[in-house]
Amino acid sequence: MLVALLLLHALGAPAAPATAREVAAEPPVRVWFNSNGDYELGDRAKVYARAAEDGNLVVLRADVGGHVRVLFPVDPAGDQRVRAGKKYELKGRGDREAFVVDDTSGHGTVLAALAGTPFRFDQFEKNGHWDYGALDDPSVRADPEAGLMDLVQRMQAAGDHFDFDVAAYTVSSPPRYVGWGYPYAWRGPWDPWYGGYWYGPRLGVGLRFGDPFFGPRWHR
């Protein structure tokens, strides 16, 4: 019996089974939209960002046509600093929403980048404002994510690195309604929806196209 106890002691006590559930690590930086990124022409889009650590943030948007706008900071001289764990709504000028959707259909892309050292905007600013001519790059139209990444790399301070997240939003065409008129022996009332008198019952069908998708990723 003594020998068995000594042998058990030498082998060590069995490890207790793990009971704590592993928690997924927070990504270095995250960007997302209201309405699940599903918009129509004229919608006011809200964009949010959160960083896992204190750092400097820049957020770029490429619309459906590949035109680039800076969502954060509002001006090149604006404060880039963000605090760890804090959710930021990226406001536009005048404390308005980040942007108004001006496309009718398609997909837009937003890229958020976080770095320890402030980004340098010298080649992208003019008279204290963003120079959108300098930000206009044909590569963004061909591949929005790669094109925005290239712009951020040009803003990156020498010797520093950055983490990033990419999210895509969808612009859907407004619902389309199609009506069919069935002629009968009687004439119905005046109906401006149909464009005049209509005959018999009318059927309307609403169709909506486009689903949102998201592509979050980060690297270090």
What would you note in describing this structure?
It is a single chain. With 220 residues, the protein is an alpha+beta fold. The chain has a domain at 25-175: Immunoglobulin-like. The chain has helices at 2-11, 132-135, 138-142, 144-155; strands at residues 29-33, 38-39, 44-45, 47-51, 55-62, 68-72, 81-82, 87-89, 99-100, 106-115, 125-126, 129-130, 162-171, 176-181, 190-191, 196-197, 202-207. The strands form 6 sheets. Strands 2, 5, 6, 7, 10 and 13 form a 6-stranded mixed β-sheet that branches. A 3-stranded antiparallel β-sheet has the order 1-4-8, with no helix packed on it. A two-stranded antiparallel ribbon has the order 3-9. Strand 11 and strand 12 form a beta hairpin. It is globular, with a radius of gyration of 27 Å. It starts with a helix and ends in a 13-residue tail after the last strand. Residues 15-20 and 181-216 have low confidence and may be disordered.
Poorly predicted regions:
15-20, 181-216
What percentage of amino acids are in beta strands?
25-35%
The total count of strands amounts to 17
Structural class: alpha+beta
Q: Whole-Å distance between the termini?
A: 56 Å
Gross geometry = globular
Could you tell me the radius of gyration in angstroms? 27 Å
Mean model confidence by pLDDT: 80
CATH architecture of the domain at 25-175: Sandwich
Order of helices and strands: HEEEEEEEEEEEEHHHEEEEE
- Biggest beta sheet summary: 6 strands, mixed
In CATH's first tier, which class of the domain at 25-175 applies?
Answer: Mainly Beta
Fraction of helical residues: 10-25%
